[in-house]
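Quick one, probably user error.
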């Protein structure tokens, strides 16, 4: 069979979530457009101010071997914390973002959020393109609280990347 005739999605996203291997299809094009836009805007700002590094999935973030290895859509690590960026990310990034796709709402907004909170990721972005919604959570006494939100229109701002703001119309 010719490759052009294949209709089965490629499985390139393998994560270990609470000790269980979870495989999923590669993201859809619209999902990747949002990931790349966020990464581009963030990278431009981070490089201009020499703040650290920005990565996109697929790249493993190893919180705990064989227990929790995730692939956030966008990852930011402050310059002073770059020692965790090796073959993969081995430790806790300063910021992670998930672009939520159909069929993954619970995984990204509940399961992964709980894992990021457990390992104390300082800032977590949830982006739901279908709802034109961006929520940014930050840790406060070890628990996520909503820090910035925009729905339909408006600007969100990062607590971790000082001065970084984004009009969600440019993102979605």
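Nope, works fine. Designed sequence:
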């Amino acid at each position: 069979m010719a490759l052009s005739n294949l209709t089965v999605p490629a499985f390139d996203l393998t994560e270990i979530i609470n000790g269980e291997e979870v495989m999923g299809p590669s993201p859809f094009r619209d999902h990747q457009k949002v990931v790349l836009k966020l990464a581009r805007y963030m990278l431009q700002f981070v490089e201009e101010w020499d703040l650290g590094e920005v990565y996109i999935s697929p790249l493993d973030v190893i919180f705990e071997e064989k227990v929790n290895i995730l692939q956030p859509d966008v990852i930011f690590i402050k310059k002073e914390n770059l020692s965790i960026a090796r073959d993969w990310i081995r430790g806790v990034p300063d910021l992670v973002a998930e672009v939520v796709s159909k069929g993954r709402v619970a995984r990204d907004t509940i399961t992964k959020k709980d894992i990021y909170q457990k390992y104390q990721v300082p800032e977590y972005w949830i982006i739901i393109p279908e709802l034109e919604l961006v929520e940014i959570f930050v840790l406060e006494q070890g628990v996520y609280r909503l820090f910035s939100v925009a729905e339909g229109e408006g600007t969100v701002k990062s607590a971790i990347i000082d001065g970084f703001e984004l009009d969600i119309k440019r993102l979605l």
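Confidence is low (pLDDT under 50) at residues 1-11.
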